[in-house]
Design a protein that fits this description.
Number of helices: 10
Structural class: alpha+beta
Radius of gyration: 22 Å
Length: about 280
């Protein structure tokens, strides 16, 4: 009888939890999720129309989000766009903060040495998010914006991160990313095969994928369990007065990746150099 009573109580609590809602909070989250997918911002009437709500319903919530710094107005009009505050909060999460703090001097030193941009990315849901950037100090270079979000299978960083997850996570990420590509009538099979190749050789190297003339080289950043917590990537731009060529720059990138792995308790096996795509 006691067991039955406990079971009923648990069921009632679960039902109550599902039934309970915080309307204002849900409106706020709906607005943030909507604006996160917009590049040009939305005015109040557009936000209301997109969410199927009245302008009056969303007005106070948007104003509160603006006051707290989660959304901001895009001049010169009245369009609202999501701010970087959510990104800043995520980067303040202890594991990410420790990773960024360890990575930043390594990235800066490497960027100065090879005269190329260096980026550090992590898995963010079903996307890849850039959490640290060292800009190319040379007069000519390729720039990546901090906080940039990209599709997983479609980038060197994303495929590298997928390749070095545990089996259940890797399978789930590949399945979901494949569904997204198929929805855009794109064949995911070549990219899935690339993930398998990355897993075998330990890195990704691909030319002309993002922009013509750029070769992306990416290494995983392993923790003590051998799972990739991040990917360090160099979009190598070939220009006339390069002081460091791709083969040497890739070796320096590996050394930086190996050092960052050591700092978070992992180990990065050394591939055979020069590496090939």
């Amino acid at each position: 009888m006691a067991k039955k009573a406990v079971a009923v109580d648990v069921e009632q609590q679960a039902t109550a939890a599902v039934a309970y809602k915080a309307p204002a909070l849900e409106k706020g989250l709906d607005i943030l999720e909507l604006l996160a997918g917009q590049s040009g911002g939305l005015i109040l009437s557009q936000i209301a129309h997109s969410l199927g709500r009245s302008v009056q319903e969303v007005y106070r919530v948007v104003v509160s989000l603006e006051r707290r710094g989660y959304v901001e107005r895009k001049p010169p009009g009245e369009a609202f766009q999501i701010s970087m505050k959510l990104f800043d909060l995520a980067c303040g999460h202890p594991p990410i903060r420790r990773l960024r703090e360890a990575a930043q001097p390594i990235l800066q030193s490497l960027a100065a040495e090879v005269e190329e941009a260096i980026i550090l990315s992590i898995i963010d849901g079903l996307s890849v998010r850039v959490i640290a950037v060292a800009d190319n100090p040379a007069p000519v270079g390729f720039r990546v914006r901090l906080g940039t979000q990209t599709r997983m299978l479609s980038t060197a960083s994303g495929r590298t991160l997928i390749a070095f997850q545990n089996e259940p996570t890797r399978a789930m990420l590949i399945e979901r990313a494949s569904e997204e590509l198929l929805s855009r009538e794109k064949d995911p099979e070549p990219l899935i095969r690339r993930v398998e190749q990355i897993q075998k050789r330990g890195y990704e190297m691909v030319a002309d994928e993002t922009l013509r003339g750029i070769t992306d080289v990416s290494f995983p950043i392993f923790d003590a369990s051998g799972i990739a917590q991040a990917a360090i990537t160099m979009p190598f731009l070939l220009w006339v007065t390069n002081q460091v060529q791709l083969a040497d720059a890739s070796k320096h990138l590996y050394e930086a990746a190996a050092e960052l792995c050591r700092q978070i308790g992992g180990h990065l096996p050394e591939p055979k150099f020069p590496i090939k795509g």
